[in-house]
Amino acid sequence: MEPCTTVLSADPHKKGDNNVDQQKITILYCRLSNEDALDAESNSITNQRNILLRYAADHGFTNTRILVDDGYTGTNFNRPGVQEGLSLVEQGLVGTWIVKDMSRFGRDYLQVGRYTEIVFPSFDVRFIAVNDGVDSARGTDDFTPIRNVFNDFYAKDTSKKVRAVLKARGTSGKHMGKPPYGYRFDPADRNHWIIDEDAAPVVKRIFDLSIAGNGPSRIARILEADKVLTTKALYAQRKGELLPERPYHWVEQSIVGILERMEYTGCVCNFKTYSKSYKLKKRIPNASEDMFILPDTQEAIITQEQWDRVQELRQHKRRPVKGERQGMFAGLVVCADCGSKLHFATCKNYDGKQDRYVCSKYKSGRGTCSAHYIREDVLREVVLERIRAVTEYIRSDVEGFQEDWLECRREDQEKSIREDKRRLEKAKKRLADIDVLMTRIYEDMALGNLSRERYQKMVEGYEAEQVALNNEVIGLEDWVATREEMEDNVDQFLALMEKYVDIPELTPTIVNEFIKQIIVYAPEKVNSKRIQKVKIVFNFLEEVEVPEISEPVMTETTYGRRKTA
Hints:
Blueprint: E1 25-32, H1 45-58, E2 64-70, H2 80-90, E3 94-99, H3 102-105, H4 109-122, E4 126-129, E5 134-135, H5 144-170, E6 183-186, E7 189-195, H6 200-211, H7 216-225, H8 231-238, H9 252-259, E8 268-270, E9 273-274, E10 284-285, E11 292-294, H10 304-315, E12 333-335, E13 342-345, E14 356-359, E15 374-375, H11 376-396, H12 398-410, H13 417-446, H14 452-499, H15 508-514, E16 515-520, E17 524-526, E18 529-538, H16 547-550, E19 553-558, E20 561-564
Parallel strand pairs: 1-2, 1-3, 3-4, 12-16
Antiparallel strand pairs: 4-5, 6-7, 8-11, 9-10, 13-14, 14-15, 16-18, 17-18, 18-19, 19-20
Helix pairs in contact: 4-5, 6-10, 7-9, 12-14, 13-14
């Protein structure tokens, strides 16, 4: 990008044909966007500068200052050169502002009109567009607003073309940006990413730490304590440059950025953001369904299941506590009555026996819900016992469990998957037949063999059938996809059990991999005993109706002692 420079006229004593205050600055403004650069030499910065210097010299403008914005779009005025010039205008230091043509000043006709018709006259600034014959000293040019509108249309049309090119590239399966930390360009193919052997293990560790219950700020502190080079420091080291002053100082934003990158699962993910208009440069996050995601385009650093679990955990923000201990189940425990989170409460003056969870809407008895109080040590025992019971139940008859699982999920379906697929093919064939029939009746109507009224009624009937069939196809495809996903969930849970053959004690990682949610019910008093139900919802299995998983466990306390039923 070319810097702004100041150039003085070679002949300051030359007299011009205009009465201008030569003590004030004459701004010679040049602008070139990346799109304008395609229009050959005529719009180049060098050509603009030569035209403006020659015009200034021929017309006696001295005390000139050249301001350049190289590589900036004309659709907004947030450009360094133009902002510097406008600042001088507001200080009353500018007498004349000269551009090659109106489009060099800007392509937003509303903004251009505001400056040329309101701002510049307010500060007695003369505005000249050389090639367009515009000179405010000669009065208003009625064609200038129309010219500004055409310049705006040009910017809009260019924006459409650029977006079309980016859309085509983005949907071709190629990455649209540079590789994130953990990947690097393949030397044999710049469109392909390969594993960065130094950074990929760090990315994997960051995800593991997140699954273990650590937040971004704590992960950053762990990496700093272990002297792991930051992204900037690693790249500087490779280039032989000086390392940053704090080469191990990871910041929370960097960790968050890594945890949110879907590409670590081995996919292409394009169109993550969009802008509402070519005039607005603010990028807005795109909905996942509007992104282009293509799996298995490069080697994965983490699994899709790990990424999904991390995103789910990050949605459950954990409230910081004053004590040094952190709740193992924080963010996972919810109230059975109001659905709110149960907050973890502790006190550093005790050894942890008083650590407990309380409904966030209890508010010391002044809220809208009861406390649903439950101690963490109770939950530890309940969850550990439940995980052991479930894994033992499944290991005892894996094939039987798979059949029960699939049968459980099929109870509400009248047809089997095979029948659904047959119905799906039949519906698709009928849709194709309708297209042929509609073509035939149109030909009959055109040849006079079918009246227009009869044709219209038949078309309406076929179109109604098409809508019904399309809805049926969508429903059947969704159900088949859901069925296949269910089978994947079973495989994922079985793989998880193989990973943890024996579980002597709970860890945050085990909890976050196994448990999706813990539902705590309000306690009841039965025969002088405190009875409380706790329901465990497992990852991948959710609420499958088998007793060892879906039925809430009962906890009871008598005279300060607790036992699990």
